[in-house]
Amino acid sequence: MTESLLEVHNLKVHFPVKKGIFQRTQGFVRAVDDVSFEITRGETFGLVGESGCGKSTTGRAVLNLIKPTSGQVWFGREDLATISPPQMREKRKDMQMVFQDPYASLNPRFTIEQILEEPLKAHQIGDSGQRQRMIADMMDVCGLNRSYLKRYAHEFSGGQRQRICIARALILKPQLIVADEPVSALDVSIQSQILNLLQDIQEEFGLTYLFISHDLAVVKHLCNRLGVMYLGRMAELGTAEKIYAKPLHPYTQSLLSAIPAADPRRKKERILLRGEVPSPSNPPAGCAFVTRCPKAEAICKEVRPTMIQLEEDHGVACHLYT
Amino acid sequence: MQDMMLEVKGLTVQFRNEDKEYSVVKGISFHVKKGETLGLVGESGCGKSVTSLSIMRLIPTPPGKIVSGEIRYKGVDLLSLKEKEMNKIRGNEISMIFQEPMTSLTPVFTIGRQLDEVILLHTDLTKKQAKERSIEMLKLVGISRAEQIYASYPHELSGGMRQRVMIAIGLACHPQMLIADEPTTALDVTIQAQILDLMRELKEKTQTAILLVTHDLGVVAEMCDRVIVMYAGEIVEEADVDTLFHNPKHPYTRGLLESIPNLEEKKRRLFSIAGQVPTPDTVIPGCRFRDRCPDAIARCEQEHPELLELEQSHTCRCWLYAE
Ligand SMILES: Nc1ncnc2c1ncn2[C@@H]1O[C@H](COP(=O)(O)OP(=O)(O)OP(=O)(O)O)[C@@H](O)[C@H]1O
Ligand SMILES: Nc1ncnc2c1ncn2[C@@H]1O[C@H](COP(=O)(O)OP(=O)(O)OP(=O)(O)O)[C@@H](O)[C@H]1O
Ligand SMILES: [Mg+2]
Ligand SMILES: [Mg+2]
């Protein structure tokens, strides 16, 4: 029996839109609007989708860094919305995040040593000597030269900073890592080192990943299952193998067609998306993709499609399949 | 030459760390012509952003310093211009899309204010017109609810939305030379395609020259005419895009191309170049890639390789190709 480490049920995160000098709320951005998925222990679950569709917000809600508007997040046997703050603090050790923007997420006034030691200190792990060893090991693992130990974060290039972020997340040996674009700032040769590294430590420590990425080749390489989001909703959900072999949702189809080939001689046939880009503060009544879908029908304007399970491990929220 | 937009000759940039001084860009030379897109790729930390920032004269000094070299824009030596003259060129004739959107956008001002500012500085538009132009630019880079976003603060935007705001700022004044430092890393492929089309259109309409820094080799293949590959502060290979992908010579370039994850075949592990880049302050007498090179020979140990011309407009810094 496979056991799920994380279950997300009907997650909604709505941000207020404020206006005027009184900052009155005049509406809501439905950043995440009724999303459900689960992640099995030891697997890598990918989250892909259009920029601004709510991937990072989902990741942050999973880690309880923002309060969901509604819905539940089960981590192991606990509903994170209902546990006490001290319990949550203890749980934090088991859940770490690697952020999208390596520039904004490191304190520029800290040396690498301080950055990596901070989480160990906060959770009272090891004595000073042990911590030094753990830091040195983790720097090796992440391809950071040990001579960098006393240098400050602002002295590093984007890619090097992202390695520091990854080292910081890994140093507590968590159970779940939410990795938000962890390799998008890296050149491909370092990217492949980091991806291999993520795979190695996953095997070694039985880690589970929620992996958010725009690089569909990377997602295919790394992920067992994935979810494709569009405008705060889940459009398609299934194993990576099935989704890449046979994308069902018209959005997924256009997404996969737009991957640029690393070969100037190959010109790919792209499915271009036309039509109004919908707003998450005023989403279409029916399907979120209706304004740009090349296959839209009358019903798509009116009725919001629900996730239907077409095969085992492959579901889609689209009226074409009902 | 008439259509030469940017010429960089022997650019060397140093940083200072406590008591040490070290070069992170070491005597690099290249040029970009009108209507041309030059790709700049290379290992993280090899000096791509420092090169780009040097052209804009935005290297933080101290700790950084351009110690030698020339940067000519339409024949004018940018390094000898007064700050006031440089200000006129910056953001107007030459504009840059910065790699780090979060630190380049001011957190306390709305997106609209930051866009308007650039437009007002470089055009004769009124405030009202500038606002219209700003909103139009936001729509152009694929941002929905542009009016709302105009009034929002940077932290209320997703990573990719912030990056697109940077692109909107970079393109707002129809630059003749565009330096784009990783402009699409935070974007999904459909929006990336849209942004690339926008840049292509700019190039076709106004003959804008583009220096495109990216590690996405798919983007390079799609956009660039020529490509330079940097390693540890030096150019190690330069070729037209077709040659670079189909006849790469430098062992580093080859390793880079081999590292791209492939959509078609499923491997358990990705290829990766062994080892780490040397830190900028290590003194290496021979080739700087030697320790990681699968093909290194004795000569690589002692002598620093020069850039060799292999064919017309294909150069490579590697002893394997010396007579
Ligand atoms: N402000 C600074 N102080 C000290 N060193 C710096 C500073 N900015 C950059 N460097 C150093 O200069 C070198 C080149 O950095 P640069 O940002 O140009 O790399 P890059 O090629 O753009 O890398 P990436 O692909 O990761 O963005 C790096 O070794 C970096 O540590
Ligand atoms: N603090 C906030 N206040 C208001 N709106 C927000 C806030 N954070 C996010 N949003 C909005 O929520 C939506 C989803 O943002 P999110 O960062 O989750 O997108 P994403 O899928 O991660 O995008 P990207 O791929 O560009 O990183 C966006 O429309 C964004 O503007
Ligand atoms: Mg995000
Ligand atoms: Mg850079």
TrEMBL record, chain A:
**Any idea where the ABC transporter domain is?**
6-256
Gene Ontology terms for molecular function: ATP binding; ATP hydrolysis activity
Which processes are annotated in GO (biological process)?
A: peptide transport; transmembrane transport
Family annotation (PROSITE patterns): ABC_TRANSPORTER_1 (PS00211), ABC_TRANSPORTER_2 (PS50893)
Q: Name one Pfam family in it.
A: ABC_tran
Sorted alphabetically, the keyword list is:
ATP-binding, Nucleotide-binding, Transport
Organism domain of life: Bacteria
Q: What SUPFAM superfamilies does its record include?
A: P-loop containing nucleoside triphosphate hydrolases (SSF52540)
Q: Which family does it belong to?
A: Belongs to the ABC transporter superfamily.
**Could you tell me which PANTHER family the record lists for this protein?**
D,D-DIPEPTIDE TRANSPORT ATP-BINDING PROTEIN DDPF-RELATED, TRANSPORT ATP-BINDING PROTEIN
* Protein name, entry field: Dipeptide ABC transporter ATP-binding protein
Organism of origin is Brevibacillus invocatus
Its organism's taxonomic lineage begins at: Bacteria, Bacillati, Bacillota, Bacilli, Bacillales
From TrEMBL, chain B:
Q: Where does it live in the cell? A: Cell membrane
Q: What is its main location?
A: membrane
Task: Report one GO cellular component.
Answer: plasma membrane
Sorted alphabetically, which InterPro entries does this protein's record hold?
A: AAA+_ATPase, ABC_Ni/Peptide_Import, ABC_transporter-like_ATP-bd, ABC_transporter-like_CS, Oligopep_ABC_C, P-loop_NTPase
Q: Which GO terms describe its molecular function?
A: ATP binding; ATP hydrolysis activity
**Assigned keywords, A-Z:** ATP-binding, Cell membrane, Membrane, Nucleotide-binding, Transport
The topology of this chain with respect to the membrane is:
Peripheral membrane protein
- For the keyword Transport, the answer is yes
In the record, which residues are listed under signal peptide? none
Q: Indicate the segments forming the ABC transporter domain, all copies.
A: 8-257
Q: Which GO terms describe its biological process?
A: peptide transport
The UniProt record lists the keyword GTP-binding: no
Q: Which family does it belong to?
A: Belongs to the ABC transporter superfamily.
* Name the record gives this protein: ABC transporter ATP-binding protein
